[in-house]
Amino acid sequence: MWYYNSQIIKHPKAMVISDITHPKAIFRDSATLTSLSIKPYREVTPDSRYYWNGEFTVDTSGSEVVGTYASTPRDVATLKANMLEKANAAAASRHAEIDWYWARASKGGTAVPSNIATYATALYSEHETIKTAINALSDLAGVMAYENKPHTETRRVATYNEDGSFKEYSGTETFAREIDMCTHYTTNPNDVDPAFVSLVAD
After folding, report:
1. Is the pTM of this model over 0.90?
2. Cα separations in angstroms, 53 against 3, 8, 46
3. Residues of 110-123 as b/e, b for ≥16 C-beta within 10 angstroms?
4. What is the mean pLDDT of residues 87-97?
Protein backbone atom coordinates (compact mmCIF):
# COMPACT_ATOMS: atom_id res chain seq x y z
CA MET A 1 0.00 0.00 0.00
CA TRP A 2 0.97 3.62 -0.46
CA TYR A 3 0.15 7.02 0.99
CA TYR A 4 -0.28 10.36 -0.75
CA ASN A 5 -1.88 13.62 0.37
CA SER A 6 -3.77 12.03 3.29
CA GLN A 7 -4.98 9.22 1.03
CA ILE A 8 -4.28 5.54 1.62
CA ILE A 9 -3.82 3.80 -1.74
CA LYS A 10 -4.51 0.08 -1.49
CA HIS A 11 -4.07 -0.83 -5.15
CA PRO A 12 -2.13 0.75 -8.05
CA LYS A 13 -4.22 3.25 -9.94
CA ALA A 14 -3.85 6.28 -12.19
CA MET A 15 -2.96 9.39 -10.19
CA VAL A 16 -3.59 13.02 -11.02
CA ILE A 17 -0.86 15.12 -9.43
CA SER A 18 -0.33 18.79 -10.26
CA ASP A 19 -2.76 18.43 -13.18
CA ILE A 20 -0.72 15.62 -14.67
CA THR A 21 -2.23 12.15 -15.00
CA HIS A 22 0.22 9.39 -14.14
CA PRO A 23 -0.58 5.78 -15.15
CA LYS A 24 -0.86 3.10 -12.49
CA ALA A 25 2.42 1.67 -13.77
CA ILE A 26 4.23 4.29 -11.66
CA PHE A 27 3.65 2.06 -8.64
CA ARG A 28 6.27 -0.27 -10.08
CA ASP A 29 8.84 2.55 -10.16
CA SER A 30 10.11 3.50 -6.72
CA ALA A 31 12.10 6.46 -8.04
CA THR A 32 9.01 7.98 -9.66
CA LEU A 33 6.98 7.42 -6.51
CA THR A 34 9.63 9.19 -4.46
CA SER A 35 9.70 12.13 -6.86
CA LEU A 36 5.91 12.45 -6.53
CA SER A 37 6.03 12.18 -2.72
CA ILE A 38 4.06 8.93 -2.77
CA LYS A 39 5.33 6.92 0.18
CA PRO A 40 5.02 3.25 1.11
CA TYR A 41 2.33 2.68 3.71
CA ARG A 42 1.77 0.02 6.33
CA GLU A 43 -0.73 -0.36 9.09
CA VAL A 44 -0.19 -1.55 12.64
CA THR A 45 -3.18 -3.13 14.36
CA PRO A 46 -3.36 -4.75 17.80
CA ASP A 47 -3.99 -8.48 18.20
CA SER A 48 -7.77 -8.68 17.78
CA ARG A 49 -7.93 -11.70 20.09
CA TYR A 50 -7.01 -9.48 23.04
CA TYR A 51 -7.60 -5.87 22.02
CA TRP A 52 -10.19 -3.68 20.38
CA ASN A 53 -8.96 -1.13 17.85
CA GLY A 54 -8.69 2.29 19.49
CA GLU A 55 -7.83 5.70 18.10
CA PHE A 56 -6.20 5.71 14.67
CA THR A 57 -3.16 7.91 14.04
CA VAL A 58 -0.88 8.34 11.03
CA ASP A 59 2.84 9.11 11.19
CA THR A 60 4.08 10.64 7.93
CA SER A 61 7.46 11.81 9.21
CA GLY A 62 9.58 8.99 7.82
CA SER A 63 10.24 7.48 4.41
CA GLU A 64 7.42 5.06 5.16
CA VAL A 65 4.01 6.19 6.42
CA VAL A 66 2.68 4.19 9.35
CA GLY A 67 -0.96 4.06 10.40
CA THR A 68 -1.45 2.80 13.95
CA TYR A 69 -4.51 1.79 15.93
CA ALA A 70 -4.23 2.27 19.67
CA SER A 71 -4.91 -0.84 21.75
CA THR A 72 -8.01 -1.05 23.92
CA PRO A 73 -7.84 -4.21 26.09
CA ARG A 74 -10.72 -6.67 25.96
CA ASP A 75 -12.48 -7.66 29.16
CA VAL A 76 -10.46 -10.35 30.98
CA ALA A 77 -13.52 -12.02 32.51
CA THR A 78 -15.05 -12.45 29.06
CA LEU A 79 -11.81 -13.82 27.66
CA LYS A 80 -11.58 -16.32 30.52
CA ALA A 81 -15.15 -17.46 29.91
CA ASN A 82 -14.28 -18.05 26.26
CA MET A 83 -11.17 -19.96 27.29
CA LEU A 84 -13.21 -22.25 29.52
CA GLU A 85 -15.66 -22.92 26.70
CA LYS A 86 -12.76 -23.77 24.43
CA ALA A 87 -11.21 -26.10 27.01
CA ASN A 88 -14.55 -27.82 27.63
CA ALA A 89 -15.17 -28.31 23.91
CA ALA A 90 -11.68 -29.72 23.37
CA ALA A 91 -12.12 -32.23 26.21
CA ALA A 92 -15.61 -33.22 25.04
CA SER A 93 -14.48 -33.85 21.47
CA ARG A 94 -11.65 -36.09 22.68
CA HIS A 95 -13.98 -38.09 24.93
CA ALA A 96 -16.47 -38.42 22.06
CA GLU A 97 -13.78 -40.11 19.97
CA ILE A 98 -13.41 -42.94 22.49
CA ASP A 99 -16.87 -43.29 24.08
CA TRP A 100 -17.69 -46.13 21.72
CA TYR A 101 -15.23 -48.37 23.59
CA TRP A 102 -17.44 -48.18 26.70
CA ALA A 103 -20.62 -48.56 24.66
CA ARG A 104 -19.23 -51.74 23.12
CA ALA A 105 -18.11 -53.13 26.47
CA SER A 106 -21.47 -52.36 28.12
CA LYS A 107 -23.17 -54.59 25.55
CA GLY A 108 -20.92 -57.54 26.29
CA GLY A 109 -18.34 -56.77 23.67
CA THR A 110 -14.58 -56.40 23.99
CA ALA A 111 -13.43 -54.74 27.19
CA VAL A 112 -12.05 -51.22 27.04
CA PRO A 113 -8.30 -51.46 26.27
CA SER A 114 -6.14 -50.40 29.20
CA ASN A 115 -4.35 -47.70 27.22
CA ILE A 116 -7.70 -46.13 26.24
CA ALA A 117 -8.93 -46.25 29.84
CA THR A 118 -5.68 -44.59 30.96
CA TYR A 119 -6.09 -41.96 28.28
CA ALA A 120 -9.64 -41.19 29.41
CA THR A 121 -8.50 -40.79 33.00
CA ALA A 122 -5.74 -38.44 31.86
CA LEU A 123 -8.26 -36.34 29.93
CA TYR A 124 -10.44 -35.88 33.01
CA SER A 125 -7.44 -34.93 35.13
CA GLU A 126 -5.98 -32.55 32.55
CA HIS A 127 -9.36 -30.90 32.01
CA GLU A 128 -9.61 -30.08 35.70
CA THR A 129 -6.03 -28.77 35.72
CA ILE A 130 -6.73 -26.53 32.75
CA LYS A 131 -9.93 -25.15 34.29
CA THR A 132 -8.09 -24.39 37.52
CA ALA A 133 -5.30 -22.62 35.64
CA ILE A 134 -7.76 -20.50 33.65
CA ASN A 135 -9.74 -19.53 36.74
CA ALA A 136 -6.50 -18.42 38.42
CA LEU A 137 -5.64 -15.94 35.65
CA SER A 138 -5.99 -12.35 36.87
CA ASP A 139 -4.91 -10.10 34.01
CA LEU A 140 -4.60 -9.84 30.24
CA ALA A 141 -0.91 -10.69 30.26
CA GLY A 142 -1.71 -13.99 31.96
CA VAL A 143 -4.43 -14.79 29.45
CA MET A 144 -2.10 -14.09 26.54
CA ALA A 145 0.71 -16.15 28.05
CA TYR A 146 -1.57 -19.15 28.65
CA GLU A 147 -2.93 -19.15 25.12
CA ASN A 148 0.50 -18.68 23.52
CA LYS A 149 2.94 -20.68 25.65
CA PRO A 150 6.33 -21.15 23.92
CA HIS A 151 7.39 -24.74 23.29
CA THR A 152 10.13 -26.50 21.36
CA GLU A 153 9.09 -29.49 19.27
CA THR A 154 11.61 -32.07 18.08
CA ARG A 155 10.76 -34.26 15.10
CA ARG A 156 12.55 -36.92 13.11
CA VAL A 157 13.53 -35.92 9.58
CA ALA A 158 12.00 -38.16 6.93
CA THR A 159 13.92 -39.16 3.82
CA TYR A 160 12.29 -40.50 0.67
CA ASN A 161 13.09 -42.80 -2.23
CA GLU A 162 13.29 -41.51 -5.78
CA ASP A 163 9.69 -42.57 -6.39
CA GLY A 164 8.55 -40.41 -3.47
CA SER A 165 7.88 -43.27 -1.07
CA PHE A 166 9.10 -43.08 2.51
CA LYS A 167 12.60 -44.45 3.06
CA GLU A 168 13.65 -43.78 6.63
CA TYR A 169 14.11 -41.21 9.35
CA SER A 170 17.53 -39.60 9.53
CA GLY A 171 18.36 -37.16 12.30
CA THR A 172 16.05 -34.67 13.98
CA GLU A 173 15.04 -31.03 13.69
CA THR A 174 13.43 -28.63 16.13
CA PHE A 175 10.68 -26.06 15.75
CA ALA A 176 9.57 -23.19 17.95
CA ARG A 177 5.83 -23.36 18.64
CA GLU A 178 3.33 -21.35 20.64
CA ILE A 179 0.66 -23.61 22.10
CA ASP A 180 -2.78 -22.72 23.36
CA MET A 181 -2.83 -24.51 26.70
CA CYS A 182 -6.64 -24.40 26.76
CA THR A 183 -6.69 -27.21 24.21
CA HIS A 184 -3.42 -28.95 25.01
CA TYR A 185 -4.30 -32.49 26.09
CA THR A 186 -2.62 -35.87 26.06
CA THR A 187 -2.56 -37.38 22.58
CA ASN A 188 -4.96 -40.21 21.79
CA PRO A 189 -2.88 -43.44 21.85
CA ASN A 190 -4.47 -44.36 18.51
CA ASP A 191 -2.99 -41.25 16.91
CA VAL A 192 0.60 -42.37 16.52
CA ASP A 193 2.97 -39.89 14.89
CA PRO A 194 6.20 -41.76 14.13
CA ALA A 195 8.09 -38.57 13.39
CA PHE A 196 7.33 -37.02 16.77
CA VAL A 197 10.14 -37.02 19.35
CA SER A 198 9.23 -34.49 22.03
CA LEU A 199 7.39 -31.30 22.88
CA VAL A 200 8.92 -29.30 25.73
CA ALA A 201 7.77 -26.05 27.28
CA ASP A 202 10.43 -23.34 27.06
Report:
1. no
2. 21, 18, 7
3. eebeeebeebbeeb
4. 97
